[in-house]
Amino acid sequence: MEKILVGLKRVVDYNVRVQVKRDGSGVETDGVKMSINPFDEIALEEALRIRERGEASEVIVVSIGSAESQQQLRTGLAMGADRAILVETDTSTDPLTAARIFKTIIDRENAELVILGKQAIDDDNSQTGQMLAAIWGRPQATFASEVSFDGNTARVTREVDIGLETIEIDLPAVITVDLRLNEPRYVKLPDIMKAKKKPLDQLSFAELGVEPAPGIKELAFEPPEARQRGIMVEDVAGLVAALKDKGLV
Amino acid sequence: MSKVLVIAEHNGTALNQSTAKCVACAKQIEGAEVDVAVFAASASSIAAEAAEISGVDRVLVLEREENDPAIAAVLAPQIAALASGYSHVFGPSTAFGKDVMPRVAALLGVNQISDIMRVEGTYRFRRPIYAGNAILTVEAPAEATVVATVRTASYQAADGGNTAAIENVSADAELPTHTRFVGVQTGQSDRPDLQTAAKVVSGGRALGSADNFGLIYKLADKLGAAIGSSRAAVDAGYVPPETQVGQTGQIIAPDLYIAIGISGAIQHITGIKDAGTIVAINKDEEAPIFEVSDIGLVGDLFNIVPELTDALN
Description:
By secondary structure, chain A is of the alpha/beta class.
């Protein structure tokens, strides 16, 4: 295949303990470390491996967000993507609108494969890939833990609740990736320098002509109800007694 | 009035408990009429089970060869066609529901509400974000169909004892052939299912090897418990991925959860915070798992776990 599109979302880093703002208007992001959504890094790694095996010729990373998302795209370029596209918008983008944006870029680029993370670790929606496949009228292979190609078909193993399911899909298609698919490579310093010269196109949301989907209103953010710290026991006998006390054994 | 269509999850012959949990959630919408749709090749036994769920008005049966095994791209257009006339379409937030429901939402031109944990109103719901570090109240537009997944750990399955009407219906949709089922590989264990088990014994990286996980299996067998694990244990290859509990694995709510050698990363905790009693066994007394556990024991799991297994005779 010619081109693979990979989505990179800028999110609060995996290791940050997220705090809800006091006024309930959102979560604290000022001065918080931001990174590529970890699943998206796995998506990019897979696309790079496909290209390195000679099964694709170009990997394009796409982000939708503020100008700051350029940082994540540059990291993607340093990992090995050929070029980047930033669809600039200052408001957060809902999954269906994001899917419509990706569809527009697929049409512009004639991409045959889109690889996305199975979910973003900020809104935990897990929708965009499936929605893109729906509006594109193409197959979806979600939660992928193994991907291989044979001509115009892909064989994808998916992590499902009862184990591993394998499906076969015709290209073009959308694949969303799970944790076990691969381990993303580390970026080396010379690659960061090289990435600065790679093309990064900026498009405004308005110029794409995408119709925004009906949004879901976010009314209030609250911290979760905390579980109370319980008791500590000294030994196994104490543990068994405590479990018996609760009628659990 | 609200009319909710619940998409049944099943394995081709038996209904998954997630369906009765979705019904429980749907019944929280004031005055809602709830129908369950069973898409299958041969639906009679599944439909009979669905008809027993308390609160269900009708069970709609859509039998087609193409519906077994379930493929999201095949089911979604049928669900979307059936959705007209319903104010809400609900599915479980399991691998099945997470795969198919967003595809349905996109076909209907709406965003999905993922992981409903509480119903606040006909269009207003609460859901976890940031691995459960924040709870968001959302409101869907009243003029469009509400498509949502239900966080199954937040709901008790609706009771049985009902005798809802079962009707054969058809959904006018063109089905794609671009996606084909090849096979499924399951752990095939006789142990209880992780999603529905009353007790779960879970092991982490501290087990150190797949062989050492034998300690976890022995304790689980003694308790009649399902096996769980942390991401670290799965990544290390000690246990298969379907055992992973947490933000990106399974979200569960057993009566008893025993975390052994699991430090308790926030991503893991989010998968167990609806558990009845959490027991933590860890050699590090500073491990964050103790902040959320009801009973904690500091010590070497390699001594404690065999001793505990023996003590439960």
